[in-house]
């Protein structure tokens, strides 16, 4: 770092936003497991105690980092087509989470939703309500969507392993799983080596859910009169 740059860094006032953005950038660069208050202070050119004026502890730092990331999600688009509005917002959330691969784990680790996450979920519920879904249906929709609302979901299998034919012994014992594995291995456009195209799978499930919710809306579905 040049003397001029160091002087500029020292003169830039430290505030909560700067601390959080530096923490997000550090986690992006080195991973969330290496993040510490001491490491962050070094990155900012301050003593560790200076950080505690803006975040009480590491848990509050992680809360703020989650909110900073969620704040990057696009606002809802205008228009009467609620499925298009919701789909676009969720795919924006997914792009944000892919930019910050550590963020999903941090969001899941929070003991409760942070303010930005709450605001986002409230806005998403509003999009469902404005689309004509009842409060009752929206309640169940939010449960059904789960973390998918924030652009990520827990997969059953880790498909990031090396590609190749299934083990003959396992294939004999689990023929249907072997068949599915062979099908996935043929997907040349996968975002992981030899596995499923995770973006396609995410959008496939998202579209199924949204179409199903619309069908229930048209039927006037309620939890006391299940279709």
Description of the molecule:
The protein has 227 residues and is an all-alpha fold. It contains twelve helices and no strands. Helix 2 crosses helix 5 (58-70), helix 6 (82-99) packs antiparallel against helix 8 (115-130) and helix 9 packs antiparallel against helix 12. The longest helix is centred in the C-terminal third of the chain and has 22 residues, at 198-219. The radius of gyration is 22 Å and the shape is flat. The termini are far apart. Mean pLDDT is 87; it is low at 186-194.
What attributes characterize this protein structure?
227 residues, 62% helix, 12 helices, mainly alpha
Count of individual helical segments: 12
> What does the oligomeric state look like here?
single chain
Beginning-to-end CA distance, first to last residue: 65 Å
Return the average pLDDT rounded to an integer. 87
Q: Tell me about the largest β-sheet.
A: none
Low-confidence segments: 186-194
**Computed structural class:** mainly alpha
> Judging from the principal axes of the Cα atoms, what is the shape?
flat
Please report which band the strand proportion falls in: under 5%, 5-15%, 15-25%, 25-35%, 35-45% or over 45%. Answer: under 5%
Measured as a percent range, the helix fraction is: 55-70%
DSSP strand count? 0
Radius of gyration: 22 Å
> N-to-C SSE series?
HHHHHHHHHHHH
DNA-binding region: 36-55
Protein name: TetR/AcrR family transcriptional regulator C-terminal domain-containing protein
Domain HTH tetR-type: 13-73
Pfam family, one: TetR_N
